[in-house]
Amino acid sequence: MNLFFPSIRNLLMIICLGVNFLVNAQTISGTVKNAKTGEAMPFANVFINNTTLGSTTDDEGHYRISGDLPRNVELVASFVGYVTATKTLNLSGSTTVNFKLEPLESVLTEVELKSRRDKKWERDLRRFKQVFLALPDDPFAAQLDIKNPWVLDFETVRQNGPNYVHATAQEPLQIVNDALGYDVTYYLKDYRYYHNRSSYVGFVFFDSQEVTDSVELAKVETNKVSSYMGSIRHLLKSVLLANVYEEDFRIFELLPVDHFRVRTNVFTEEIDKSIRRVFADSIQRVPLENGNYRIIWPYDAEIHYSGKSWVNDYYSDIYSSVSWVSAPLGYFDIDRNGIPVVPSQVVMSGYMGRQRMGRFLPHDYVPSKSLDSYRYLTEIDSPQMRFSRWNNLREKPYVNTNKPYYYPSETVWLGGQMLYQNKIMSDTLSRVVYMDLMDKDSKIIQSEAFPIKEGKIAGAFVLPNELKSGDYFLRAYTEWMRNYPEKDIFLRALPILKKEENIQTVAITNPDLFGDLTINLTDSLFFRDSYKEMEFQLSLLDETEELTDAQFTVSLTDADLVSTVADQMIILNAMEWLDVKDPPKNLTLGNHQIEFGITIDGQFTRDKKRDPLVNPITVVRDDLADYGIVETDSSGYFRATGLYFTDTATISIAALDSKQRHYGSITINENSKPLFKGSYPKINYETYLRNPDDLRFDVSGDYVLLEEFVKEDDKIETLEDRNYGYGMADRELSGERLTTISPEALAGYLGFKRGGKSIGNYNFGLKASNPLLIIDGAQYPFLENEQFDQIMSSFIPAELESIKVYTFNSASFGMAGFGGVIMITTKKGNRFDATEQTAFNSSEFQQFKIRGFSREIPFPDSYESDQAVESKPTLYWDANAETDKGLYSFKVKIPQALKRMNLRVEGLTKDGLAFEKTFEVVVK
């Protein structure tokens, strides 16, 4: 088969003879009549789909469309109250086309349509506008409107496959697009929304607005050009003419996914690893007999367009738009203007997938012959661009507690998650969150620090026994957040009561989730000898009533001991922070840096003038439990981050010369606290005196959770089985895969970055050491490149038991694991004990007591089987609950006398939808 590869001469012929939409003058005429009565239909609309070309019938039902028409057209005839009719034509001269329109069986009146209002319809309409018109952050969104939204009707369709939301319209949608200067009539044929995917099909007619003001006219024309530049139509036309590079496009083929390699968001790291350049002259273009062209597109492609500025959230080193284009059939057909003949043949996402009807240009729109004058056009001004980059690194904690109020000496259990303005950057941001308990005078009562693990927060602390009753609040923040407005800091009211008091309960009011999410609870009660046992199952269903996964906190409390309160902070309120788009006046970041663990910074002072300006500082925790080497800057300042320990540790610090003797002196900077300037959060409540017999408190060592286990043959678990105490790896390579993997594939599996060995912290340009090697339990930290290469090259993969890699899950390795961890187990190793290390000599070091993370206080999860079950305020708490295929289950033992419980869940679905709900559970 001879494929079409246009030569320069052929390209010139294409350019000269038919690149533009317009061809020879044509005429289409005919009549529109009622299919049942045969009567003529005056004032019916007849138009060529997706164009500005159309006409209206006269008193006798005649219409006429003439001018420079395209060769292949879809002609549409419509009249309110009648079924819209279409005919596909291949024009070759004057053509007669007659229509007979069928009346609709039933048509709601405008009054009936306008009366169909409810919260679900309003929610469906908001989503429809985002899917159909424009995304909320599109600069054109404010200039778009649907004049008759009441004609829309929504329903949830349930079928054997995925459920979906379906929309119909009794009349054409009347759309005003002031950005592009069109009044648009859209005949909706089908609209579907399911699982954050959507599709819509219809007929559309564009009527150009009369814009007389020259300034407005120029703005409209600029908007049209801007919508064309970087669009799928612009791309495909440049593919047809083989001038992709000249039109500022770059096409990359997506390579097969390597499941043993973590994809980065650094463009230069991904070339020839996950993407490969495609050149325009290698793309096959086949001319068809009907005048269209078939583009052979056998791969998923990533498209970069640099012709205009656009905020890119995908790559950290690319500052223009990125799109993805695929063809399910391996090809798609386009006309001479690059317009897909069958739109469903092209699947788009990224920047091109953003374009909705608000960006859609009529097919007869002819862009400027030269786009050079519009090159590097920006729809976002430079202040907005700077704000976007500043905003991309914003984070905020949301923290929930096991109950809404407490008593002195009780344990407060915490759970929550970090919210990110740009989740792609989350692997770069903080791993430490600080928590302050403050009184109404803004005095800090106690301070805690908790690790952030994969964006989740969990921990606990004990309230002082001498704490006076009153209004207190929790303040949560990261060190990095101190560069941003104070309003980003999280605050939660935390009343402390006298031990003989309780709060008057209020009725439970659950927030309306508007049908986006349904949370169901089922429970079963079992009677035992001295206690009752209950099993709970939660199921979460999305707007299409399909099971959906989520991460959340679960709190089960005795309703007679823990009252419900009003006006407490919930995650739905916190999510409003993500929608704040107004940039502040000052976008300058301060000196507060991102922390990847417990951080120590200080000042090195030289003894002698001949000492170097930049000095290596050795930091050692306890007796070589962790250590690292950092460098000062020229002023003597140094900073070590990534330490991971609880309570207080002895940190030894010194500048050592080649003979391991110290020189100079070290001072450590005290950790500062942000000033509190605002008003503290407070909830309204009334108290009453409790019966002395009802005094119950949540303290460490309580019991509740039913421990489930399966007894198997006794097996000695080695340190190796437990990954030497370091938890689950991010990825693992073992078995037959190790015997067949190539060196290149192994390097990709390990995730080595080009030009170095670091395998973590891609986004922020942090300087990290080579990965920590752990070989059969023995650690080899802070290796130089030559040492690292020598050790790694000494292994034959077939002789290894396994290779495990820790990247973003490497916090527990301390500073040594900041650049990632590679854990290798050899077939001859199988160590049961960790390698003994040389005793640490601290005589050359200055020593400091440094506080680490707050000590772990796990919620009680087991007890003796024959132990009586006592009444406790909190019966169950899970700070890191996750569903499995939309379901979450747990069991709990409860006292015989327990009558009522409240089960509260709060969190985010996998699609980022916030939810909170409290169930009242009656124990029968």
What does this structure look like?
The N and C termini lie far apart (78 Å). Residues 1-23, 110-116, 702-719, 761-766 and 830-837 have low confidence and may be disordered. The chain is mainly β and 924 residues long. The radius of gyration is 33 Å and the shape is globular. Helices cover 11% and strands 35% of the residues. It has a 7-stranded antiparallel β-sheet, with no helix packed on it.
What is this structure's SSE topology?
Layout: H1 8-18, E1 25-34, E2 45-48, E3 54-56, E4 62-68, E5 72-78, E6 85-90, E7 95-96, E8 99-101, H2 110-115, H3 119-132, E9 144-146, E10 152-157, E11 164-169, E12 173-177, E13 182-194, E14 197-208, H4 214-228, H5 232-240, E15 249-254, H6 267-270, E16 275-278, E17 285-287, E18 293-296, E19 301-305, E20 308-309, E21 321-326, E22 331-334, E23 347-350, H7 351-354, E24 377-378, H8 382-391, E25 395-401, E26 411-420, E27 432-439, E28 444-453, E29 456-462, E30 472-477, E31 490-493, E32 501-503, E33 517-527, E34 532-542, E35 550-558, H9 571-574, E36 598-605, E37 616-621, E38 626-631, E39 637-643, E40 648-656, E41 662-663, E42 665-668, E43 687-689, E44 731-734, H10 736-740, H11 743-750, E45 772-775, E46 778-780, H12 785-793, E47 800-806, E48 821-826, E49 846-851, E50 874-882, E51 887-894, E52 900-909, E53 914-922
Parallel strand pairs: 1-7, 1-8, 20-24, 45-48
Antiparallel strand pairs: 1-4, 2-3, 2-5, 5-6, 9-12, 10-11, 11-13, 12-13, 13-14, 15-16, 15-19, 17-18, 18-22, 19-21, 21-23, 25-26, 26-29, 27-28, 27-30, 28-29, 30-31, 32-43, 33-34, 34-51, 35-50, 35-52, 36-39, 36-42, 37-38, 37-40, 40-41, 40-49, 44-47, 45-46, 47-48, 52-53
